[in-house]
Amino acid sequence: MSETAAATGADDLIHLELKNGRVVIRLRPDLAPQHADRFRSLAAEGFYDNTPFHRVIDGFMAQGGDPTGTGTGGSSLPDLKSEFTNKARFVRGTLGAARTAHPHSANSQFFIMFAPAPSLDGQYTIFGEVVEGMELVDQIKRGAGSSGMVSEPDRIVRMRPAAEAA
After folding, report:
1. Which end of the chain, C or N, has fewer beta carbons within 10 A?
2. What is the pTM of this model?
């Protein structure tokens, strides 16, 4: 964890409850303030509860945040402009904003990296990092084939800002 991440406040901690336990995410508003705020807001309203990890590629990432489970859904809020940075890299545990081929199309979908992916650096918005429970993320059911789409996917049990998670 970087010093900048360590300096963020308790308001930037998110509790992600999976079937096997709790994952703690630290948002990075220092890198992507709009994306961190969107994720925090959606988590606070319960948007992510029971949504699937619909696309999971072994050795790459687990993608969730789409209530339809198809990879085409999002929230009712407008899409966000990209907040690409050269200050951070896609490494194990990084949270990135999923999007279409259009760089300003991120909405509610996100992904958590299983391993480094330098090809994503500067191409996708980094807005958080797993600080506890990565071993639980590693247990998320993987998809089949190159698309990584998962039949009968694992789901987010509950996700809330830590201050509201009690």
Report:
1. C
2. 0.93
